[in-house]
Design a protein that fits this description.
2 domains, 5-stranded antiparallel sheet, Phosphorylase Kinase, domain 1, 11 helices, Aminoglycoside 3'-phosphotransferase, Chain: A, domain 2, globular, about 300 residues
């Protein structure tokens, strides 16, 4: 039985379209009912809705029968969360949060409770990168013969149109976009690696746990080469690099350090990092954050 009202956190509402339509609007209206159904069906007691929470799901802190803490995650429809449960099942708690139950109809996931307020971002950069590298290494496992996950080629295909139609960027960004498009075309075809990747790995998605010091959450799973996953760590906390002196040299040192520590080819890591920086810069600019978008594009030039 619910003990508190179900109100979506403001961060989640801000991430939705200004005037949600169709499935998203229906999901918001049905959210209290969806949560209540899972509370009753899985015999959970609601403590509170987690805030500020994420941008693609509502997370409620709950307790199971017997008092064991857990987290109930209800994803926004249409977001890239359908395969999260499948990836967590493959990892089975190795390097990632453990999946306790799932509901195919609603996409709801019942997860072990981690310390949501303590991520790797709370650590000094050098220590955070070390712990992040150790965590992501555990996630790189074979996906299985008949896995449901996209390949990198398919996964990045959707970015092509966005990159080609970017029209809110300075003209100087055009060569970077063309380079990113070429890298997107050639990199997946050149690699023979077929690992299950987190897909959205960064320091903020690694939380403190009890059965393990650090565990990953919120995957957007994809199958491909390790350098793609590691590239997101190259971008992590890029604002800190930009604020310091010698940003370009510091960025290249980060690439070398991460590549060497995980036995990943430096050039491929650099190339995937450039692609992901340009893709993120275009996305941020299209979403209205031109300052962040242009800083990401500048970051790409340092690589």
């Amino acid at each position: 039985m619910a003990t508190a009202p179900i109100e979506p956190p403001q961060r989640l509402l801000n991430s939705l379209p200004g005037d949600p339509e169709g499935p998203v609007r229906d999901w918001l209206e049905a959210l209290p009912t969806l949560v209540q159904q899972r509370l009753e069906g899985w015999e959970l007691t609601l403590e509170r809705v987690h805030a500020p929470g994420g941008r693609s799901s509502l997370v409620a802190l709950v307790r199971q029968q017997g008092g064991t803490p857990a987290a109930l995650k209800i994803p926004v429809p249409g977001r890239a969360s359908a395969l999260e449960g499948a990836a967590l099942t493959v990892w089975d708690g190795w390097g990632a949060v453990r999946l306790l139950r799932s509901d195919e109809a609603s996409g709801a996931l019942l997860l072990e409770r981690l310390q949501s307020g303590v991520s790797l971002r709370s650590l000094p950069e050098a220590k955070a990168l070390l712990e992040a590298a150790g965590t992501v290494r555990r996630l790189w496992v074979p996906p299985g013969e008949e896995h449901p996950f996209e390949t990198l080629t398919d996964h990045t295909e959707q970015a092509v149109t966005a990159l080609r139609t970017a029209d809110s960027l300075p003209r100087a960004a055009a060569p970077l976009i063309e380079e990113a498009l070429e890298l997107r075309r050639t990199l997946p075809a050149e690699s023979q690696e077929r690992f299950l990747l987190h897909g959205a790995f960064r320091q903020g998605k690694v939380l403190a746990g009890e059965r393990a010091p650090w565990l990953a959450i919120g995957p957007a799973p994809v199958v491909g080469e390790r350098a793609y996953d590691l590239a997101s760590l190259v971008l992590d906390r890029f604002e800190d690099l930009a604020a310091g002196s010698g940003a370009a040299a510091a960025t290249r040192r980060r690439v070398a350090k991460l590549a060497d520590s995980l036995d990943v080819d430096r050039d491929r890591l650099r190339n995937w990092a450039l692609y992901r920086a340009v893709r993120a810069g275009v996305r941020e600019s299209a979403g209205g954050d031109r300052r962040r978008g242009e800083l990401l594009l500048e970051f790409a030039t340092w690589l």
